[in-house]
Amino acid sequence: MKRKNGSRQGPEAELRGKPVSASRSEMTEIVLPAQTNPLGKLLGGQVMHLVDMAGALAAHRHSNSYVVTASVDYIDFRNAVNLGEIVNLKSQVNRVFRTSMEVGVEVYSENAMTGERKHTTTAYVTFVAVDEHTKMPKPVPPLILKTAGERRRYREAADRRKTRLALRYGTDSRRGK
Predict the structure, then answer these.
(1) Residue 9 falls within a domain, yes or no?
(2) Helices (H), the chain
């Protein structure tokens, strides 16, 4: 709602911005036999599950509400993760829209015996904040950008959203349809 003088009222008026750092989350797991394929590599579906969990942590921290996964725009498996390795997932909110947030997740593996670390996976996941009583989408606090890297990720998230919405609604963003 807006008043005639242009000021907001209602729940959105109370939302104070939060820095990207407030959403940063980290998860660590070890790869067990039940999570691997016959070659001893972590299953891709298991990686996706971990990405969803790590992303949800960041979205939950930023929005201080329940969140649901709305979209996975991109997931890139760069290197395999082996049985017995440590998996470290790092996530943060890249951009906030009205009720949704794009979260970037990076996955790294670590060989516990040698200490070798590899970047294994990158993903972009969109979450929607949900009101705990109505179960409807609710507004999310704005994002406060402090670094050049945060501003770059913010801009790139807008491009991914434009593409995602064009695909979802069957529009061609290049022709404005």
Answers:
(1) no
(2) 44-63, 148-169
By residue range, what is the domain housing residue 102? 14-169
Measured distance CA(94)–CA(157) in Å, rounded: 7
Kind plus residue range of the DSSP H or E element containing 70: strand 66-77
Q: CA-based Rg of the chain, rounded to a whole angstrom?
A: 18
CATH number, domain containing residue 115 = 3.10.129.10
- The answer to whether residues 119 and 77 touch, using CB atoms and an 8 Å cutoff, is no
**Residue 12 confidence (pLDDT):** 52
Q: Are 62 and 104 in contact (CB under 8 A)?
A: no
Q: Is 7 within a domain? A: no
In DSSP terms, 95 is beta-bridged to: 102
* 123-153 tens-digit pLDDT: 999 999 999 999 999 999 999 999 999 999 9
Residue showing tokens 């050049």? 148
Domain total of the chain: 1
Distance CA 107, CA 120 (A): 6
Q: Are strands 100-110 and 86-96 parallel, antiparallel or unpaired?
A: antiparallel
φ, ψ of residue 56 to 5 degrees: the values are -60, -35
Local structure of 83: helix, strand or coil: coil
